[in-house]
Amino acid sequence: MKRMMLLLGLILVAGLAATGYVSATSSTGFYEVNGDVVDDWGICRTRADGEYGFYQLTETTFRPVIAFESLGEEAALAYHLGEQIAHRYPDKLERAEAIFRFVRDRVNYTPDIDWFGYDEFAQNADELAATISQNGIGYGDCEDSAVLLAVMYKGAGYRSAIVVGSGHTAALVYLPDYNKATVVFELEGEPGWVWAEATGKNNPLGWVPKQFINAKLAAYEISAEAIAPLKPTTAPAVAVAGTGGGAQAFPFISIIGLLWLMSLFRRRRRR
After folding, report:
1. How far, CA to CA in Å, does 65 sit from each of 14, 56, 62, 71, 134?
2. Can you state the percent helix, strand and coil of the chain, rounding each to 5?
3. Integer Cα distance of 271 and 83 in angstroms
4. Which distant-in-sequence residues (6+ apart) come within 8 Å of 190 by Cβ?
5. CB of 186 within 8 A of CB of 8?
6. Three-class SS string for 168-205?
7. Of the candidates 84, 96, 242, which has an alpha carbon nearest to the alpha carbon of residue 177?
8. Cα–Cα distance between 152 and 86 in angstroms, integer?
9. Which of 245, 148, 252, 258 is CA-nearest to residue 198?
10. Percent of the chain beyond pLDDT 70?
11. Looking at the DSSP assignment, which residues form a beta bridge with residue 8?
12. What is the mean pLDDT of residues 5-29?
């Protein structure tokens, strides 16, 4: 297949905070606030949108704050799993594939309603990694796999990002020398980003669902950011999709909000 390149807007915004009192799942440190489940950091696990949501989703942008719960001073099991794989695989491309296989093969795609009893429930990277370490397998959906992948890639020495599209989310890893991907992504003018879609057992690293090729997407490169409220940006980012014969610009405003509010995280899998 002809290689293509997509330009994604890299964006920032949103905030977090909440309170509550009732343990909501078998994990510890969760509270219930007005029917939503909130963790110790004040992040709402049952909602992606809004200043308290795990993706802090707005009509113009998003910030995957749940990933920061497993980075920097909060780095724990998931980050260290990435470090361990880095020690076993000195070759950077083989290492990237090994991390992808680790998540793809050990996370069984499971709707949140079946596993947690909520229509939506996001796990942070360490929670899912702990289940895998204890049982050899974990259960989750698209955002769970994406966040685990992004954090493990950081632990293994890569730059990584989380990407969102129509009712779906996945991870990106910066691999400019990887020639197995049929679609290459560009973030803020920088090519070399590879899509990591771990929600299907036959997916290879670099495979992209066709509905997200030349689609309106946004990405956020993760780092060890503070888990604290942030003010929204005043201007929307722009996503541009190029197919080799020119490019068409799409204003990013309202893309995320309209898509997510219609159907939060409608899961996409390769069969």
Report:
1. 9, 7, 9, 10, 25
2. 30, 25, 50
3. 31
4. none
5. yes
6. EEEEEEECCCCCCCCEEEEECCEEEEEEECCCCCCCCC
7. 96
8. 10
9. 148
10. 73
11. 187
12. 35
Domain boundaries, the chain: 4-262
pTM for the complete prediction?
0.81
E-assigned strand segments in the chain: 4-10, 31-33, 36-38, 107-109, 138-140, 160-165, 168-174, 183-187, 190-196, 218-221, 238-242, 247-251
pLDDT higher at 126 or 27: 126
Tokens coding 246? 């020119």
Closest of 139, 104, 101 to residue 123, by C-alpha? 139
Continuous segment of H or E residues that includes residue 100: helix 92-106
Residue 142: in which H helix or E strand, if any? helix 142-155
Backbone dihedral angles phi then psi of residue 261, each to the nearest 5 degrees: -70, -25
pLDDT digits 0-9 by tens, 180-198: 998 999 988 899 999 999 9
- Tally the residues of the chain: 271
